[in-house]
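Structure (tokenized):
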């Protein structure tokens, strides 16, 4: 992992540790894998788009994905999701939705004075184009729209809950896009099987 993505991961942990709150946005489906048995890294399942001056990372904050991450990473991001659940619910209600699909989006400056445009992030899924229905900033410099080299800004993006995050989707930033989550789906399916096997083995001990 490169230095700037290591910084990104550390920032997520710091942000989550600084937040406290109950309630959650986590999916309540009975098919959720058990937490604490995953081994994946964030960069294995996040979508990345790189421009001349920016790197953009998009990670689904769905429990079906998060529970397959390494335990420390899962704990950090799960805490972040829980802490922002009231804000997410309020943002969804503001646009007439009962819920929202949440994604952790990070912009990282690759050049001095890199400009980023938050509303240029969008998702295409099953032939339908989705724009954010809400954005919850996590970084003080978010409203500046500008980053120095190696500086970053993160936010939780909310999209229509109709987006199936365990199926193929394409992330856009302006006129650039990435369908790399296709590869992540196969990886997530394999990791899910391993997680269930690890959990079953522990129960037998």
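Design, position by position:
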């Amino acid at each position: 992992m490169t230095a700037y993505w290591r910084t990104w991961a550390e920032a997520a942990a710091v942000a989550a540790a600084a937040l406290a709150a109950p309630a959650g946005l986590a999916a309540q489906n009975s098919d959720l894998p058990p937490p604490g048995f995953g081994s994946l890294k964030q960069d294995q399942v996040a979508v990345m788009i790189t421009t001349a001056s920016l790197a953009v990372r998009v990670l689904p904050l769905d429990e079906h994905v998060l529970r397959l991450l390494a335990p420390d990473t899962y704990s950090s991001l799960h805490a972040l999701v829980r802490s922002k659940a009231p804000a997410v619910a309020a943002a969804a209600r503001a646009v007439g939705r009962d819920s929202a699909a949440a994604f952790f989006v990070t912009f990282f400056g690759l050049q001095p004075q890199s400009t980023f445009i938050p509303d240029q992030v969008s998702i295409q899924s099953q032939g339908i184009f989705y724009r954010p229905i809400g954005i919850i900033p996590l970084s003080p410099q978010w409203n500046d729209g500008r980053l120095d080299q190696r500086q970053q800004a993160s936010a939780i993006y909310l999209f229509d809950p109709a987006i199936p995050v365990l199926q193929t989707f394409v992330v856009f930033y302006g006129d650039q896009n990435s369908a790399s989550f296709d590869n992540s789906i196969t990886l997530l399916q394999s990791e899910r099987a391993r997680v269930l096997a690890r959990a079953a083995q522990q129960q037998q001990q």
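Reviewer-requested clarification: Residues 3-19+36-199 form one domain. Residues 76 and 122 are 25 Å apart (CA to CA).
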